[in-house]
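seq as requested:
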Amino acid sequence: MATKSTSPKSKLFVFKRLRKKRCRLCSNKMVSVDFKDVEFLKNFITERAKIIPRRISGNCAKHQRMVTRAIKKAREAGLLPFTVK
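struct tokens:
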């Protein structure tokens, strides 16, 4: 009885190339992020009030830092929640 061997080459893993996300703030030429713009900042937090990371949101490093600072400022001002109860 000959058994069929499975070599690593027989199992091909196909990776779908995803388009690189563009920074929405760079494309809109936004210079600063206002912490009072709660509707805009809600796009960058999850339903559990965590800040969405850069690799998921697609922001560049500069704008991700600006968004993070604005979210933290809005939390201190009471405009955004720290946690969801």
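The chain has a mean pLDDT of 87.
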